[in-house]
Amino acid sequence: MTDLKLSDPLLRKIIYSVGIMGVIAFGFYTFSLFKGGLGLLLDVLTPFIAAFLLAYILAPVVIMLQRHLRLGRFMGTLALYMIIFIAVFLLLAFLIPTVLTEFIRLFNAMKTGIPPLLNKLSQSSYLNVDAELITVLQDKIREIHVDYEKIISTILPSLRKVASGGLQAVELATRGLFTGVGSVVSFFSFIIFVGIINFYFIVDWENISPVIRKMVPPERRDRAFDILEKVDTAVGGFLRGQLTVSAIVGSLFAVGLFGMGFIGFPALRNYCILIGTAAAIGGFIPYLGAVMGVTPAIIIILMTTGVAWSVKLISLGSVLVLFSAIQAIEGFVLQPKIVGKGAGLHPLAVMFALLFGAQFGIGGMIIAVPAASIIRVLFREFYWLPIERREAALITQEPAED
C-alpha cells in the first residue's frame, strides 16, 4: 500500500486548490457579514467620495486655468465653477428636454412601426412564422401605454434616496410638506453639498501630497510614491480619459447621424441627440459607446414606415460605415492617446466593478471603477511583475546551464 506524503505533487495541488476554495468561500462569507455595515458607511460617505473624485478629475483643469489665466488657486477654482455652472445650465435648458422629446417620439414611432414589420415577417415564406402569434404580438404592442407622469413620480423618490447619508435632515424636514418637492430639494441639496466639499478639496489639493509624504516612513517613500504615481496614472487616466472619449464618441455619432439625415434618411436627424447621448453614456465602458450608438440607429431605420427598402439598405450600410469608423477611431486613436495603455481597464472588468459596486448603492458605484484601477496596479506590482521577472531569469539561465 502506497503512503501519501505531503511532498507528492498531486497531493500538494489538491491541498492548494482546496485551500484557495476555502479562502474564497471565507471571503464571501465575511463579505455577507459586513455588507450591511459597508453599505451604511458608503451611504454616509457618498458626498465626500463623490466630491473627492470630482476634485481628482478637475484639479488638473484648475491648474491649467491658473497657468493660462494667471489666477490664484481660489480664483482658478471659482473660474472652473463658473464654467461648470454654464455647462449644467445648457444641459438642463437644451440637452435633457431634447433627449426626452426624442425618446418619446422614438417610442411612439416604434409603437407604430413594429406591427407592419411583424406583418411582413409573417408573410415571408423563408421564416415560416405563425400568423396567429404575430397577431397577438401586434395587439400587445398596440395596447402598450406609457404614463409619463407616473414615471416622473417614480423617479422623484429615487432622487431622494440618492441624497441619503448626511442629508437625511433635509429629507425629514421636507417630507411632511411636499413629497415630490421634498425629493427634488433633497437631491439638489446633495448636489450643493458635494459642490461645497469639492470646492475645498480643489483649493487644498496641492497640500495633500506633502501630508501623505510625511506619513510614509523615509525608507519606504521612494517605493510608495512610485506605486502611487502608477495608481494616479491608472485612476486619473481612466476617469479623465474615458469621460473624454465617451464625450467624443457621443459627439461623433450625433454629428454623423445629423449629416446622414440630410443625405437621404431624415429620421436619423430627428434622433441624433438621443443616440449621441446614449453613446456618450455607454462610452464610459470602453468600446460600448459605439454599440450603444449603432443599435438604436439600426432600429430606427428598420422601424421607419413609408420608406423604400432600397433607401433603408443604403442607410443601414451608411450607419455601419459610421459605426466602423468611430470604432476604429476609438480603438486606434482615442483609447491609446487619451486613456493610455497604463490606465486601460478591460470592458468586462469595468462592468464587473460597476455591478459589484451597485450592491452598495450609489457610493459603491462611484468608487467601483477607481477601486478596480487601484487593484489592477497593486496586482501587477506585487504579483504579476515578480512572476515576469522570475520567468525572464529562468529563460536567461537555461542557455548557461546547457
UniProtKB/TrEMBL annotation:
Q: Name one GO cellular component term.
A: plasma membrane
Q: Name one GO biological process term.
A: transmembrane transport
* Residue ranges crossing the lipid bilayer per the database entry: 14-32, 44-66, 78-100, 177-203, 243-267, 273-302, 309-329, 349-379
Top-level taxon of the source organism: Bacteria
What is the membrane topology here? Multi-pass membrane protein
Does Transferase count among this protein's keywords?
no
Compartments (UniProt record): Cell membrane
Q: Which UniProt keywords apply?
A: Cell membrane, Membrane, Transmembrane, Transmembrane helix, Transport
Q: Which family does it belong to?
A: Belongs to the autoinducer-2 exporter (AI-2E) (TC 2.A.86) family.
Q: What is this protein called?
A: AI-2E family transporter
Q: Which organism is it from?
A: Desulfonema ishimotonii
